[in-house]
Write a structure and sequence with these properties.
Number of domains: 2
Radius of gyration: 21 Å
Order of helices and strands: HEEEHEEHEEEEEEHEHHEHH
Distance between the termini: 55 Å
Strand content: 15-25%
Number of strands: 13
Length: 293
Amino acid sequence: MIPLTWVKRYQELGFVVHPCCPPTHRCQSPGKIPYDPYERRHMEGWQNHPQFTLEKWAEWLDLEPEINIGFLTGSPSKIVAVDIDNAAGEEMFRGLVSEEDRRTWQFRTGKGSRFLYRVDEGGVRSARLTSGDAAIEALGDGRQSVLPPSIHPSGTQYAWIEPLTPRHCEVHGAPAVLMLPQADITSERPDWEAAAQAPTHEGSRNETLTRLAGHLLAPASVPPDEVFIWLKLYSAAHCKPPLSDPEIKMIVRSIQNRQERADVQAELETRRLMKEHNLKWTDAEMMRRGMCG
């Protein structure tokens, strides 16, 4: 059970905290998704929730003692969380960030470690930097992170690493290498469950299907041909009148092109960072990225 004193302390430190589902919850990511203990289901609109009162937390913990605790990363808490899951990621991180800057708040997760950094102003873009088996993910606006002493679904407990704890050291400002420029992103995410129940009238059909296509074609992408099928089904059920197949295909292609441009920009930024910090690609990785013959 999460002690209420931990919730209070996190709030005093500025973390905007929320309950996450229990580690035994039957879902895609047990123990890691914002959760409503009253409704016993995942929390809707969690990206913009307020700082919940300690009284409400006490009720939640009494109602469902096995909930985990998480917080909104990025602008709400003024904290960016850097997630590293394996030794290759740790090696990459050491090449990007100085030893001094690595001595910030840090805790163990179910698979690796998470570094926390302070961000004082402006939007905080989430980003992922990869090289072969190495990956570093910065969790900013529109994301969240589980906190100690939560329990990972594997049974491992999230735990602060001594002496890199809020009790023993100060949180460092985020290194510049982690702070990618803020792009056209938002922490607000549409409630697609509600949208799926409502009709979409002429005048807003293209906008709604474009947003839905963007949602489906985002980084964890659904193949474009499947997106076309979903949009066609949505249009037939909810658009008055439905859009034609050519109109839907045009929407899918437009969003796909935009995503491909974003991927190219991310790739260019990755190459720039690798060059700037003198990191080395493996021959296989370079061939995969078209950097050598």
